[in-house]
Design goal:
The chain has 175 residues and is of the alpha+beta class. It contains seven helices and four strands. The protein has one domain: D-Maltodextrin-Binding Protein, domain 2 (3-Layer(aba) Sandwich). The chain has a four-stranded antiparallel sheet, sandwiched between helices.
């Protein structure tokens, strides 16, 4: 399957950049997961469960997803506040590409799975307590030349990631 080849290419390319020895370390790019929250079919349910297992185990450091996926994980307290991850310089650099979650809605989201998310997650002025949790990566040629993505793809760091240094490298690799 072509996606597997691309995943291997990404893995090898990034491992070289990050100086990761693939003989002694595990690096995994999973491009086989697809989420369609409009349907909630078996594949989406299984993929959601798989992602949550990896998050809970601390095995998943970052994700790239579209707006519905980022909405889902942002309002389930899974994504890191980028102010705790990025330097001040990086915050300014990526600010125009931020996806914001409204922290004022986090508790409500836990109680109400059908919560209406803010209509424009790129506009912090429309929120009570905006928190940047993802960065748009639409302009990433590495992604657009290799994978089929719709509009508005975002990179986000998982809140319990153990490899912040690698997340920084990966973000730079993408941008």
């Amino acid at each position: 399957m072509a996606e597997t080849i691309y995943s291997e290419d990404y893995k090898n390319d990034f491992a070289k950049l990050a100086n990761i020895d693939l003989e002694t370390s595990v690096l995994y790019f999973d491009s086989d997961m697809f989420l369609d929250f409009s349907a909630m079919d078996d594949a989406t349910v299984q993929t959601t469960q798989k992602i949550m297992v990896h998050i809970t185990a601390g095995d998943l450091d970052s994700i790239i997803g579209d707006l519905p996926a980022i909405d889902r994980y942002a309002y389930n307290d899974v994504l890191m506040d980028l102010r705790d991850f990025l330097t001040d310089e990086e915050l300014k650099k990526y600010e125009k590409d931020f996806y914001y979650a409204d922290r004022a809605l986090l508790e409500e989201a836990k109680q109400n799975p059908k919560l209406e998310y803010p209509s424009d997650p790129t506009d912090p002025t429309s929120m009570k307590d905006p928190m940047p949790v993802a960065i748009r990566v639409n302009d990433c040629k590495k992604l657009s030349e290799t994978y089929v993505f719709g509009e508005n793809q975002y990179f986000a760091v998982i809140v319990n990631s153990k490899h912040q240094d690698l997340n920084h490298l990966f973000l730079n690799y993408l941008k």
